[in-house]
Design brief:
Elements (H helix, E strand, L loop, with lengths): L1 H29 L3 E3 L1 H24 L9 H21 L7 E3 L17 H16 L3 H29 L2 H5 L10
Antiparallel strand pairs: 1-2
Helix pairs in contact: 2-5, 3-4, 4-5
Length: about 180
């Protein structure tokens, strides 16, 4: 029962974020914003939907159950939610699930963006390992952590390139730094 409630919470959260992203996309595109990284977006969405299917499948069909130490990944999940909300509020209309940039805009450098370039990706990385661990879905945790690393290598490179080309990113955040040291 608790698992079903948790999954429903996540589904509502994700659907709300899609709605916010669509609204922000309309606002920004009306101001002349452009989209980058379209070639990988389908695969990113597919990965995230598959995460939920694998998680549900592993818990229900492989009898995943919370380990005795479930509180540790749950606390990590809660911390990630605070960072998620902080990032979303900090970016305001600029927050999106897609890479949508307004040419010439000043990059947001407040909130968690003062400390880390891509806090939302940190949140997703934490969630993809913490959520399955809460329910003892170890295969899902490992598989989607690895898939996320591969996805972020593509995603962050595309986003950084677009930010450098279209905004004041280099001036506000310095030269490109590798998110993953091996490329």
């Amino acid at each position: 029962m608790l698992f079903a409630v948790f999954i429903c919470f996540l589904a509502i959260q994700r659907l709300s974020e899609v709605r916010i992203a669509k609204r922000n996309e309309r606002v920004l595109k009306a101001k002349g914003a452009v989209e980058a990284g379209q070639d990988h977006y389908f695969w990113m969405v597919t990965m995230h939907v598959s995460f939920f299917l694998f998680l549900i499948g592993e818990v229900l069909f492989l009898n995943g159950s919370p380990p005795k130490w479930w509180i540790i990944p749950f606390v990590l999940f809660l911390i990630a939610q605070v960072i998620r909300f902080w990032a979303l509020i900090s970016l305001g209309v600029y927050w999106n699930t897609k890479i949508i940039l307004l040419p010439g805009a000043n990059v947001v450098a407040k909130g968690p963006y003062r400390f880390i370039r891509h806090p939302n990706y940190l949140v997703v990385s934490i969630e993809l390992i913490a959520i399955p661990l809460i329910f003892g879905a170890y295969i899902t945790a490992v598989l989607f952590t690895l898939l996320n690393i591969l996805m972020l290598r593509v995603r962050i490179a595309a986003e950084e390139k677009a930010l450098m080309q279209l905004t004041d990113y280099e001036q506000s955040h310095g030269k490109k730094q590798r998110f993953f040291p091996i490329q």
